[in-house]
Design goal:
With 569 residues, the protein is α+β, with helices and mostly antiparallel strands. It contains 20 helices and 23 strands. The protein folds into 2 domains: 172 residues, Penicillin-binding protein 2a (Domain 2) (Alpha-Beta Complex), CATH 3.90.1310; 331 residues, Beta-lactamase.
Length: 569
């Protein structure tokens, strides 16, 4: 009886073993086979080269430099092995093991995504790590590309920079085929044209043995390089504008009035985009984000300021077109202006002035008269005709609109508000690129072009070059009168921009000193047109909280003389 019981137990055990084997090999066999194959296959990604960015003359603004980096695949590590890996890497790289591990934990996003723990290692270090990689599952040396920006800070806001996508951005772009480790563009054309500049990654699919050594190559796909982007900017103009600002807060925009091409766009203070490409400079890159001077802000398109006396241009155009004044109309400019119970006091008393003299001196009293004759609604209408208070549509991200106030938006509107509006103060806000386009419209006698920075992409020319947004039709004598007045600003011996009366360079335009509020220095402006035998261009220059417009004129003079010495004008 006892023997029969033991036999039954043994038979039952064998049946259970058989059923277990049947389940594992027959029922679940396919699943475990696939798992075994998967576990023996490793995908080694190849990063493609991001598209180059060139200036209009073929000079390199952004390119790629090959480098070696050390990566670890989290899913192939356990905690015990991980400590040994970092001790090994610390010996080879002469680094701190705990710092390498901390970097790994910080940058880890997904278990299957390689985490870069060391970047820009030497070729010798790469060979040493590769030779011992079989001892440490998940440890890989990969070839990558580091973005290089030869112009540094001079081209920063136009070009932008690349970096690893943060979590918020990754959620937005992952549906477009981005992986967690793909570099993405931030600001400038790097962001605006990111999808075109981005390379399509490749990789090798290999079979490895239990020691992680390659057994055979299963498949390989070569990466595809991103498209080359050619910009309308001229590197020499970029550098001249950057040097003219000399680190002061402000912006410069240079446009071709014939087709809207941006020849130069600079914002200051700037940043070095190379700092975002080098891991060792991450602390410096982080400092930009904390800097109260906002070096990452593109003031040329992303900030708005009162235009000051530059706004006298649309006011004058309105006054002439509506026949409220003529170029010969005379108003007294005694250095003050009384309006109701308000008394406006000015620094200079010019006496009786016609339009030409008043524009040359920037006599506020004269333009108070024009503004009061037009009224706020008509002033706003003429400002809007020239697209002030609207985005220009430039192919640079984060453009702001500015503000042209409408009387209906206010509970109370007083004559003093109209007077302030007529000289570009009060509630008016504009951007440097808007004022550059205003000068283009004056030079074109009403033809407004869309500013743009793309010349070609992937060898395909920009089909929108020279596209018209609108055309403003005014009487020919109106344009003639305004241009004569704006030339006086430079040509009159006591004109507010007389320092720009330069040999071989014809300049006309308008200065502006815009109040920025109690206790704060004024903003300094100059917006003008430059004509030489070689070329014609328009530009605006802003110095934020820098005081009198004389400083903007001095910076403009420095830029023009620099361009003349470079043979650009």
């Amino acid at each position: 009886m006892r023997i029969q019981t033991i036999l039954r137990f043994i038979v039952a055990a064998f049946i259970l073993v058989f059923l277990g084997l049947f389940y594992l090999q027959v029922v679940r066999g396919g699943y475990f086979f696939r798992q075994s194959v998967t576990n023996s296959i490793r995908v080694i990604p190849f990063e493609g080269r991001r598209g180059q960015i060139l200036d209009r003359n073929g000079k390199v603004l952004a390119t790629n430099e090959k480098s070696f980096c050390v990566t670890i695949i989290p899913q192939e590590q356990d905690r015990r092995d991980r400590k040994e890996v970092f001790r090994f890497l610390a010996r080879v790289l002469n680094a701190d093991a705990s710092a390498l591990e901390a970097r790994f934990m910080k940058d880890r996003i997904a278990s299957f995504s390689p985490v870069v723990v060391a970047q820009d290692i030497t070729r010798l270090q790469a060979i040493v790590i590769e030779e011992s990689a079989f001892k440490y599952p998940g440890l890989l040396v990969m070839e990558r590309y580091r973005r290089q920006y030869p112009c540094g800070a001079a081209g920063a806001h136009v070009i932008g920079y690349v970096g690893k996508a943060d979590e918020a951005r990754m959620r937005l772009i992952q549906e477009y085929g981005y992986s967690a480790d793909d570099p993405v563009g931030y600001t400038g054309v790097e962001e605006y044209f990111d999808d075109d500049l981005r390379a399509q990654p490749g990789g090798r699919q290999i079979q490895v043995n239990s020691r992680g050594q390659q057994v055979r190559l299963l498949s390989m796909r070569e990466p595809a390089e991103g498209k080359t982007l050619v910009l309308t900017v001229d590197q020499d103009i970029q550098k001249a504008a950057h040097e003219a600002l000399a680190g002061r807060k402000g912006a410069v925009v240079v446009l071709d009035p014939a087709n809207g091409e941006i020849l130069g766009m600079v914002s200051s203070p700037a940043f070095d985009p190379n700092d975002f490409s080098r891991r060792d400079d991450r602390a410096r890159a982080g400092a930009y984000l904390k800097d109260a001077a906002s070096p990452l802000l593109n003031r040329a398109v992303g900030s708005q300021f009162p235009p000051g006396s530059v706004f006298k241009i649309p006011v004058t155009l309105g006054g002439l077109q509506e026949r409220k004044i003529k170029p010969t109309t005379i108003f007294d400019c005694p250095g003050y202006f009384d309006l109701g119970n308000r008394h406006f006091k000015f620094h200079h008393a010019y006496g009786r002035q016609d339009l030409i003299e008043a524009m040359g001196h920037s006599a506020n009293e004269y333009f108070f008269h024009i503004g009061l004759l037009l009224g706020p609604d008509m002033i706003a209408r003429y400002a809007s005709l020239f697209a002030l208070g609207e985005r220009t549509g430039v192919d640079i991200p984060y453009e702001v609109k500015g503000v042209i106030p409408r009387r209906g938006a206010f509970t109370h509107w007083y004559p003093g508000d109209t007077a302030n509006m007529s000289i570009g103060q009060g509630y008016i806000l504009t951007t440097p690129i808007q004022l550059a386009r205003l000068m283009a419209a004056v030079e074109n006698e009403g033809r407004l072009v869309v500013p743009h920075i793309k010349m070609s992409l992937g060898g395909v020319e920009n089909g929108m070059a020279g596209a018209l947004e609108r055309s403003v039709t005014l009487r020919p004598e109106v344009w003639k009168g305004v241009k004569l007045a704006l030339r006086a600003v430079v040509k009159m011996p006591d004109g507010t921009a007389h320092v720009l009366d330069l040999p071989g360079i014809e300049v006309y335009g308008k200065t502006g000193t815009a109040q920025a509020g109690a206790g704060r220095s004024d903003h300094a402006w100059f917006a003008g047109v430059v004509k030489t035998q070689k070329r014609t261009f328009v530009f605006s220059i802003l110095l934020e909280h820098d005081g009198s417009s004389a400083y903007a004129c001095a910076a403009a003079r420095e830029m023009l003389l620099d361009l003349q010495s470079r043979g650009k004008i």
